[in-house]
Structure formats: C-alpha cells, structure tokens
Amino acid sequence: MQADAGLDISRSTFSHHQKVLREAGIIQARIQGSQRILTLRRADLDACFPGLIDSILAAPRELIGTR
Q1: Rg of the Cα trace of the chain?
Q2: CB crowding 8-44: b at 16 or more within 10 Å, else e
Q3: Nearest CA to 47 among 62, 21, 25?
Q4: pLDDT of the residue at 59
Q5: How far apart, in whole angstroms, are the C-alpha atoms of residue 37 and residue 54?
Q6: Could you read off the pLDDT of 12-64 as tens digits, one per residue?
Q7: 35 has which bridge partners?
Q8: Which listed residue, of 23, 31, 33, 54, carries a Cα 20 to 30 Å from 60's Cα?
C-alpha cells in the first residue's frame, strides 16, 4: 500500500499507526463519501505545544528522516 504521504507500508501497519495517532489526539478522522479523511489537529497541538509543529516543518529534511 502506498499512503498519500509516500510511505510504502502494509495496510495493517498504516491502520495501526492511524489508530495510535487518533487515540493520542494528534489526528482526527472524518468520513466523506466512501473515503476517510485524516487531518492533523493543528490548533489543539499548537495550544498544548506552542511552536512544535512549526519547528518540525522548518527542520531540514535530513533531521526528520524524510527522503
């Protein structure tokens, strides 16, 4: 399975990580037609951890492990 983020992982691995992130309050899922849309709970994360998301997005790619 190729997730939209470009990750080559199995469906079960993706489902597991999705569940963990949802239960931790990091993402939320909503149904739109036949699709499940995942979104980052940015406002909630910014309220709890000011500047964290901006710091991650500003970090050089080699520091956060992306290709």
Answers
A1: 14
A2: eeeeeeeeeeeeebeeeeebeeeeeeeeeebeebeee
A3: 25
A4: 83
A5: 22
A6: 998 899 999 999 999 999 999 998 899 999 999 999 999 999 998 888 776 66
A7: 32
A8: 23
